[in-house]
Every structure is written in C-alpha cells, then in structure tokens.
Amino acid sequence: MKRVLLALLALINGLRRRKERIEAHEEAEREAPPIVPPGPPASRRAELAVAGLLFAAAVFAVGFMVVYAVGSIGSRTQLFGIALGGAFALLSAALITAAKHLVVEEEVEELYPEPESPEEQAAIAEIVEESGSRLTRKKLLITAGGVAGTAVGLAAITPALSLGPLLDTDELRDTPWRRGLRLIGEDGKPMFADQVEEETFYTAFPEHADHDLIGSPVVVVRLPPAQLKLPPERAQWAPLGIVAFSKICTHAGCAIALYRKPTFAPTQPRPALVCPCHYSTFDPATGGDVIFGPAGRALPQLPLVVGGDGVLRAGGNFSGQVGPSYGTVRSRRPT
Q1: Pairing status of strand 202-206 against strand 183-185
Q2: For the whole model, what pTM was predicted?
Q3: Cβ–Cβ under 8 Å, residues 291 and 283
C-alpha cells in the first residue's frame, strides 16, 4: 500500500512540474521578440487593389468562356486574346501588388538550419505565420484568390470541351452553303463561269457568309470535261468542267493552297490539288480522291450550277463533312 501511495504522489508531482514547464515555455514565447519583425500595417487600399485585380481577372476569364460558348459573336479570335490575356495579366498584377505591399520582407545573412528538431520546425512555422502580419482582410483576399483561380482554371480548360469526336463537334458539320448561293471570289465579286480558266487556281466563298468559318472557303478549278471521272451521282456537279472542293485539308485542317498542273503532259502527273503542310494530294477529276500523302479521305466536293446570269452558284451542300478526319466523320453529313 505504501508503494502505491508513493507512486501516486510521484505521478502527481510529475504532472504538476510538467504543467509548470509548459506554462513557463508559453510565457517565454509571449515575451520573446518575433523572429520576423512586423512590418507596418497594410494599407487598406493595397488589399482592396489586390482583391479588385483578382475579381477583375475572374471577370475576364468568365468573358473568355462566354465568347467561346457563343458562336455568333464576331471577331472571336481577337476577343479570345483580350479575355484570356487580360485574365492572366490581372492575375499577375494582383500577385505583384501583394508581394510588394502585403508581405513582410525578411533579410537573413545565414542559411536556414535543417529542420532536425521540434524547436527548429516551430521556428519555421512561426516565420511563415508572422510573414503575413500585415494582412487585415484575409477572408476577402482568400475569397478573391479562390474565385480568380477557379475562373482562370476553367477558362484554360474550356477549349478542351470541344476537342475530339467524343465531345461536341457539331460546329464542324455546319456550313453556310445552300442551293442557289453565289460563289464570291477573293476580290469580293461574283464568279462568272466563263471567266474561270483551265490550269488556274481560284478561291471562292459563299455570298453573305463569314469567310472565317471552316465550311466557307472552296477551291475552284476548271478541267476539260473529257477528263472528268466523277462518281455517277455527281455527274451534274461540274458544269463546263468546273469543280469546287472544300479548301480545308482532310488530314490536319491546313488550307489547300497549291495546284499542280502539268507543263509537259506526256511525262508529268495529271492536275491535282496539294496541301502544303504535309503534301496530301487530291485528284479534282475523280471527285477529290487522295492520290498521295497522309489524308485519310477525299476532299468534300461542292455541287455547282450556272445561273441564268452566268454566275456560278452552289447546287447544294458538300458531299461530306468538312475538316480533318476522325473516327465517326464518314458516318455524318454536313448541315
């Protein structure tokens, strides 16, 4: 019994002494000067400026997503750059302002010791905590930073939502071509059938349509009618030997910009449309079939008719979907 009482007294005495040591350590910490000298109180204007810049960055990022989602907005490329570039610029300005006006600067002459003991780890944690001693509106800044970071992050990944055949690719099937639309040349004037010459490469667009749409531009060439070997269902698509095809290569989406014409027919290959990016080559006489290069399918052909005024007009829509090839492109028609 005596040993038990002595053990209890020793335990109580040990707990009392441990409590006294903890209290003494806490008192010493309160009286000890801070590791990082406190800087002057933060200017409220600086905090509001940082919060304002972060919220403005979020607004620009949301604007980018809106422009990306609404296809009817004009000058989208320029607006993309303004919105996304503005978001990143404002975010950078907010970080620079915070670094200069809201963070205490500490200068040390020696390296930090390795955090090998609890005391050193506690000192490092204290340095981190004291470095934010200027901030008086932490909740506002944290909220603004979260909103800006989320908005800019969503804006950065927004373009991925329209990539690939498993996602929304409806825009690739949309073309402005409809039966009766006149072909307009690069000079802005209607294209007359009798002005289209053989061995010459022309670019045309649908009347009153946006030239930047992927389904707008076509290449127009004229061949001797006897050389045409179009599929039977397209026999009436080439009046006077004039054929038109989408200008967008079916390999990687580059523009068909070259026309190979033989200068000495007995030895040189027949006329062909060539993409300068990877040299996919298409035969206009057979309906745009691939005769060389990595393209996986023929160029979509646009049916043509000659109006009573002699102007070339579309006889309908393309024979296939415009643009690069992927898994389901052959099973879908342009709209």
Answers
A1: antiparallel
A2: 0.54
A3: yes
